[in-house]
Structure prediction request, 391 residues.
Amino acid sequence: MDELDIKALDRTYVANTYGRADVVFTQGRGAEVFDEQGRRYIDLGAGIAVNSFGIGDPVWAAAVTEQLGRLQHMSNLYYTEPCAKLAKLLCERTGFRKVFFGNSGAEANECAIKTARKWAFDKYGDESHSTIITLKNSFHGRTITTLAATGQDAFHTKFGPFTPGFVHASAQDAGEVRALAEKGGCCAVMLELVQGEGGVVPLTREYVDEVVKIAKEYDMLIIVDEVQTGNGRTGTLYAYEQFGFMPDIVSTAKGLGGGLPLGACLLGERVEHTLGRGDHGSTFGGNPVSCAGAISIIERIDGKLLEGVRRKGELIKKAFEGARGVKSVTGLGLMVGLLTEKPAGEVVKEAIARGVIPLTAHEKVRLVPPLTITDEQLCEAIEILKEVIGE
Ligand SMILES: Cc1ncc(COP(=O)(O)O)c(C=O)c1O
Prediction:
């Protein structure tokens, strides 16, 4: 089918929720992707931080196809090997006790929210401590509940009524978290350690230390949303490792499945027994094909790979710090935000026209390439992007 036909079909039949770039992608390899006319692009978006090992990663593809040939789905009424093995691998690598599998970031967060509220219900015998503190400028998903959790007013219109029980504190102001906790009725604080959709804004260690302290004082759980920061993206397996504390609950998705839908909610010691039979579930969650792929991803996120992520992150930062047209550079590992003089949307459009695919995040240009992008690919993409930003 030719390119114009694909676009026309899409515009006619796919719900109108996305502002798509004017390009049809057909295939790729690693950090390179090709459009309908065979034009090559360097991928600095990885499908929004999803294709951890790039496109068509042979190890991941072999794990997925091998599992596809055996059993594509069975239901959580039964045991399957990839689901059990992936849960063990995640627990052994992190120290978490149990894992609930869903299919997306929003679902992982729904599980985190349900777990925190159930934990408080079990403790107090009622729903008196159901409130969850989240941060302004956060993003936690697009279900009605995760929209309510998201601390951005722009997401709190049109679809109400939203799930009650969320209050929002300004990031980097621990006093606001304390003031909300003092009011009582809170069971958890939920945060992204680098606010991704909010513009790639990392929280400081001092702020996070203070929030952890307040959570202890007021007997609140800490939920860390690692949907975007997780699975090696920031230079450690999970970003919390760089902040010197152990959360009670971590939600993750995106890079975990290496390109197939998979979300996970990691449950720590305090909540490992909170969810019981029938408390939660998912038809597709823990799908054997997605889990087989994820095992091949997590097994390869080792010290060497993570060192490469940190090094390449620094390489990007250094290249753009002080560059023409760049006002500031933020981020952690291979999750970088550039505040540019040109509007971010314009930068992305122009970069795509020149064969590089960055993303936006709020007013910033966001770079989240595959973790395995080569130095050559990265340097080539940086040069093109610098030209676009500096013009
Ligand atoms: C931090 C964070 N949480 C949750 C989500 C929602 O994930 P999903 O789109 O897989 O539901 C996202 C997606 O961008 C995210 O960045």
Remarks:
- The two ends are 36 Å apart (CA to CA).
